[in-house]
Inverse folding.
């Protein structure tokens, strides 16, 4: 069932998708182990999105403990991936590779960039999970 | 018809070598080993000597025609091919002028093929200090890139082992230059941007008649890198070569699509030269190394060691993959990030991509090179890494993002791309690659090639410093 992007049901569906993904479980087995793996995805407004959306994920050891859209006053995350919604939508519709968007700077990384680069397979698998959620645009 | 081109007769009259026109071109002249770019030159000139090269450059300046140089065309980017310009096919200048056995040097023409030189030098008990894996390339060609081989951890690049060059500059002047001269280090690894090598005086070394190679295998990249560093630091090895070798294990999802994945192993080949009757002490040499397995020990004449990859290349030719697209992605990494980088790139590399190619690793010492334009990360301990695939042309668009991302990730992790392979830099990326050397390189281009006619289409030096 398709959920509206930005709705709590969409975030819950994403959590279930991540936890059901063997690709993510293997690729991210070391993500968040010995360090804070929480991640904030920031969808910046543009003509396709009238307000910013912030998706906060609790991630560790290949699993997702929490996924929720949060306000600006929510606790920060150890890592942030930030970019215009048009870039995100291109990724979510699988027209752009997430790794390419990160490596070319179309998605901006805040936090320990080198740690993220050391787990590119994990970030790619995560973005694939995000793109796999049945979305009503 | 060759006579149709209004400049043909004048160009032919200015040189002793052959001038070919498009009706005489063979297909191989229209591309290079990369098979990615296909350009048609206006003329191909096979120069007979340096005077011909200078005459072609002066002719090109007079008529505002670009000039590109081609050796064995092992390049994979916009080098060794020409789009409507003059292509100087330098293999016609392959003379070995003379050996100074006492000083251990040899003078060669720029179009000399390394294989020819190696076999010629055998009678003197001499060898070039550094040899590339593929000996079928020309001396002028590899000097223009840098020239890396399995002895580079001791001697640097091939360009670091040159005493003197004769160069025809983009101004059409013939200049003899040495390592103290500005021109010299803008020719070495200079991508043919400021001058064309017509003669090189190369440093040689005494070569023993035999080699012993130990074939070690590692199952852990970090243990391999630690042993590679120990081997370099020991000072006892003459040649070090390593690969990353996949063992396919099944399929797994990568971005949702199932593909074959592999367990990667790291073959490490360590070689010493020895005199017949005085074999090396295996136990002493291998003490302190920690391989997963010692697979094999091979004794071979040194000349056969130099040619060790010929059967591999012949296999690629027989399989037809020599004609595929070769977007080789080679990079020199800092030792500190090499394992992390390899950990990220290899697990998702489909082993099938490497049919007709392979994945190279080469331990290196940055301090062995004085080259200004062979860009490498700071620090002495470095690791070269290369994905060398052969891609059927129809799959190239599908594979390209993977290699693009491997290249970008390598740069973000402190690496410097090795420019013999497939390069698709933006102008900003070119500037970032050469960093503080960019402005002097641009200045040298303006000084020695004022009309910007040499090897256009690759590095945008005239776009501004």
């Amino acid at each position: 069932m398709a959920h509206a992007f930005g709705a709590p049901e969409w975030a819950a569906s994403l959590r279930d998708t991540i936890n059901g993904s063997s690709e993510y479980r293997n690729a991210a087995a070391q993500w968040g182990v010995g360090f804070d793996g929480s991640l904030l995805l920031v969808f910046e407004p543009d003509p396709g999105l009238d307000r910013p959306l912030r998706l906060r994920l609790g991630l560790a050891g290949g699993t997702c403990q929490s996924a929720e859209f949060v306000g600006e006053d929510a606790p920060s995350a150890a890592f942030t991936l930030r970019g215009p919604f048009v870039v995100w939508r291109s990724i979510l519709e699988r027209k752009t590779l997430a790794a390419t968007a990160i490596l070319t700077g179309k998605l901006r990384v805040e936090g320990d960039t080198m740690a993220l680069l050391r787990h590119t397979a994990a970030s790619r698998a995560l973005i694939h999970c995000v793109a796999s959620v049945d979305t009503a645009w | 018809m060759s006579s149709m081109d209004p400049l043909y007769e004048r160009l032919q009259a200015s040189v002793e070598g052959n001038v070919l026109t498009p009706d005489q071109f063979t297909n191989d002249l229209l591309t290079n080993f990369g098979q990615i770019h296909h350009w048609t030159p206006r003329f191909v000139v096979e120069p007979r000597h340096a005077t011909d090269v200078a005459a072609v450059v002066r002719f090109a300046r007079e008529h505002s025609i670009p000039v590109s140089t081609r050796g064995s065309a092992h390049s994979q980017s916009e080098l060794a091919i020409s789009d409507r310009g003059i292509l100087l096919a330098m293999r016609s200048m392959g003379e070995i002028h003379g050996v100074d056995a006492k000083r251990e040097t040899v003078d060669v023409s720029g179009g000399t093929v390394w294989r020819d030189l190696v076999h010629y030098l055998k009678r003197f008990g001499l060898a070039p200090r550094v040899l590339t894996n593929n000996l079928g390339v020309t001396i002028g060609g590899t000097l223009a890139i840098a020239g890396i081989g399995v002895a580079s951890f001791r001697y640097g690049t091939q360009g670091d082992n040159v005493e003197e060059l004769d160069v025809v500059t983009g101004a059409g002047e013939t200049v003899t230059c040495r390592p103290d001269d500005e021109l010299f280090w803008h020719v070495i690894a200079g991508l043919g941007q400021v001058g064309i090598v017509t003669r090189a005086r190369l440093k040689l070394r005494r070569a023993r008649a035999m080699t012993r190679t130990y074939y070690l295998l590692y199952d852990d990249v970090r243990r391999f890198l630690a042993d590679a560093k120990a081997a370099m630091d020991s000072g006892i090895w003459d040649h070090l070569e390593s690969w990353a070798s996949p063992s396919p294990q099944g399929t797994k999802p990568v971005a949702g699509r199932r593909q074959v994945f592999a367990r990667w192993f790291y073959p490490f080949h360590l070689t010493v030269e020895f005199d017949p009757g005085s074999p090396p002490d295996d136990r002493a040499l291998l003490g302190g190394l920690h391989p997963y397995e010692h697979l094999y020990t091979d004794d071979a004449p040194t000349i056969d060691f130099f040619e060790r990859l010929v059967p591999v290349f012949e296999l690629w030719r027989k399989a037809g993959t020599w004609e595929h697209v070769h977007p080789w992605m080679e990079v020199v990494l800092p030792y500190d990030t090499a394992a992390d980088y390899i950990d990220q790139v290899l697990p998702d590399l489909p082993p099938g991509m490497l049919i007709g190619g392979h994945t190279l690793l080469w331990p290196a010492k940055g301090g062995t090179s004085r080259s200004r334009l062979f860009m490498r990360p700071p620090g002495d301990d470095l690791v070269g890494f290369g994905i060398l695939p052969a891609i059927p042309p129809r799959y190239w668009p599908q594979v390209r993002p993977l290699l693009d991302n491997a290249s970008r990730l390598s740069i973000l992790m402190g690496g410097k791309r090795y420019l013999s392979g497939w390069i698709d830099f933006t102008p900003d990326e070119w500037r970032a690659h050469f960093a503080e050397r960019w402005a002097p390189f641009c200045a040298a281009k303006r000084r020695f090639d004022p009309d910007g006619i040499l090897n256009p289409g690759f590095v945008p030096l005239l776009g501004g410093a």
